[in-house]
Amino acid sequence: MLPWFQELQHLVTRETRFISMKRNLGIDLASISLSGVCTPLKVRCIPEPLRQTYVEGMRAAMPNSVVVKLHDYAWNTAGSDPEALELVNVEKLRARKYCAKSLIEHGKNKDAIPLLEQLLRVEDQSIAYEACKLLINSYIAAGQPEAAVDLYVQAIMDNPHLLRTLDSRIVSSVCENLASSSKNISIPIALSFHYRYIDDAYDAALRYSFERFLNINCLNSPLELFAASTIHEQKRLYFLEYICIPDVMKLYLFFDNAKEIEECRIEICKRLVEKRHSVERMVSEVKERTRRQVLLEATKHVENSRIYSETDGFMASTEYRLLYDRFNKFRSQDYTEYDDESGLANLYETLKKDPLIMSYAYSMHVQDIVLNEKNTAFLKLCKIARDEFTFGVKGLSGHLSTRIRHGHFPNTLRKCVSSEGLLSPKPKSSSGYKRNSVWPDRFSSLPASSIASVDKTLAEFSSKYDTLINEVNDRWFQINVFDQEMTGLDKGTLTESALFNYSTTAFESYCLQRHLQETAEYSDFVKLVTQWLWDRTEQNLEIIRNKISADFRARSHRLLDDLENEVVKIVGASDAINEFRASVNRARVSLTAAIDTVICWFRRSQGLTVPKFDSDIAVTIARRSADADIEHFDSSNIEFQGRTLSYLVDVLYVLLENCVTKSNLPKGELNIQTRLERGLDGAALSVSNNCAPVEDISAANQALEYYRESYGKEAFALKASQGEGGSGFFKVWKSLAKDLGLAHEIVFGYESAERFVVSILISNSELEKVSFHEDIDR
């Protein structure tokens, strides 16, 4: 029985997967030699010196045997007529098969093709399948490559299980050569089979064949295939479903960007659903790709809304309007004889022809000038508008604090080096750094003194790197409204280094006043001052982008260079030094990308790009910013208006960052859960996390009473929300209560010694303010 099992093993190996022409031929011969069935093919298994003796013995023993007849006519002499008298007693299909095989064996592939084409159509699936394999190779050998590809594609479409038993590589190689000139849709389909089921060796050929097929057939968009009725329907649908995918289409020049490719793919899926083709799969793909598009757009929206200030309050303010009316009364009077009026007018006329100089009017201070009533009133108007724009309830400072300074910038830059183990941990209760958890162990083969030196070097690097980040975060990203006229006063180091400079002068306000028409109404003033403030913001943003790109980039990279050089000095030719250098190089690359990302933050917020979103979108964006793994559960089915996205991300980010930084646990041990649930009375958003055990739950909750009592007290909370450190809950309140106008309740505290929970409760009536409804034009 052992030979039978060996033969079975060879059969399974041969029929399960095509390995290579040589290996499969070897398996065939091994299987034939073990078989107890008499066949002319056994002659091929006999060593050459013994083969003739074997044949003569076979003829002498059974001269009228079918095996002898097949051997003598078909195999030995390459007979090509299965109807020949010599084969009169041989079963017709078997005769055709052996004649075809014999012709192939003797290099007469073209003569074998008609016989194989006949066998291809027989009902015996085993014979038809073997004929298919032989015919594909015969077409190629006979110089009919497109026929081989067509047969290969049709065979797999009829029976996908055949794919791994056919020589996909030789067919793909043929397709690679045909792709540039053939209009046959089977070319890209065959390459797709190999790409999907074998390997990616021909992925470039697949992309090229996709493009060439469309070009040669005078098609631009893949969507035009739906109207191409001359193309075989089954192949056309396959092409649309499996070849018109973003990975294949990404180099096609018809598309301008990745978004267009995604939109095209979504439209293809929708049309395939209309045709009732692969409905379940296509519907699922549409949902997933649409969701990814929304997430991408939502992420861009959040990234591009970090620099923002709400200016609608200018128009609605009665106080500003009354002050403007007062200015208008003064304006109707003649002040040309006043010293300040003539002095400012002369300076304006002298400089107005040079736009570059005029763009720095805020820095031009006229010494010892005393302003008349008109100019004083207008300067006051400008300063009030400036202060509202920068430090108002919905001003720039609050958004700058929540969306950049409060963790976003420090976390983004620290992650570049901490992910490589280059940043030593620093306990909050200590001014020093703990032992580095990675590299001293990697250099464990060194003397103890060298390991200690490496750890000290890493701690010094960590201190300098953190100091640099804190300098940028706490000093550069501040707002300066200290006006030039306030001479003799100590402006402080924060003001001196703040890059958001909104200080102004009497000359700058006079220049603005000159741009205001005599008949200007309050709305014209609002437009003018709003444009002025955004122009100043654009100036500031350009300065910041350049400062980060040049100064911060150079200083941060220099720290990495110094770290690498110092460690190399200490460890010399240690085994781990190459690994350390590779780690530093990865940190450099990551740091470069992070700096480029941060630079993009400092651009003015653009218009709304996301009409609606669900909680999972907001949680995903916040999770990425906080660099936290979380479990999110949403049973509410609530969709939110697009305008609320950045604010809800702000809320979630603050809460998630608190989970990461206040838990006193390593990130790897954190278990964070977010839930959005809707009940009869409204919705509840909860964020919970595990934490290091607290000794006394009551005392720990009592310590939070200050935040509970202060939460919602506007005068205190607004000021606190524009700073960093202990301000998280106040930022949550500002985003919900002031930015979104949502009345809400918040409950937070330890539910157990090792679990902290924050719950935000919003009533149904309040929820309507932010919910998206298809039938309402928001």
Please characterize this protein's 3D structure.
This protein has 778 residues and is of the alpha/beta class. Strand 8 (745-752) and strand 9 (755-763) form a beta hairpin. It contains 35 helices and nine strands. The chain folds into four domains: 162-305, no CATH class; 313-398 and 496-531, no CATH class; 404-479 and 541-601, no CATH class; 612-767, Histidine kinase-like ATPase, C-terminal domain (Heat Shock Protein 90). The strands form three sheets. A five-stranded mixed β-sheet has the order 4-6-7-9-8. The N and C termini lie far apart (79 Å). Helix 22 runs antiparallel to helix 24 (448-476). The mean pLDDT is 84. 60% of the residues lie in helices and 6% in strands.
Topology of this protein?
Blueprint: H1 2-16, H2 21-34, H3 48-61, H4 66-75, H5 92-105, H6 109-120, H7 125-141, H8 145-158, H9 168-178, H10 186-197, H11 203-216, H12 233-243, H13 246-249, H14 258-274, H15 279-303, H16 312-316, H17 318-331, H18 339-351, H19 355-358, H20 373-391, H21 396-405, H22 408-418, H23 439-442, H24 448-476, E1 479-480, H25 492-497, E2 500-501, H26 506-514, H27 522-571, H28 577-601, E3 612-614, H29 615-626, E4 630-634, E5 639-641, H30 645-662, E6 672-678, E7 682-690, H31 697-702, H32 705-710, H33 714-721, H34 728-739, E8 745-752, E9 755-763, H35 764-767
Parallel strand pairs: 1-2, 4-6
Antiparallel strand pairs: 3-5, 6-7, 7-9, 8-9
Helix pairs in contact: 1-2, 4-5, 5-6, 5-7, 6-7, 7-8, 8-9, 8-10, 9-10, 10-11, 10-12, 14-15, 15-29, 17-20, 18-26, 20-26, 22-24, 22-28, 24-27, 27-28, 29-30, 30-34, 33-34
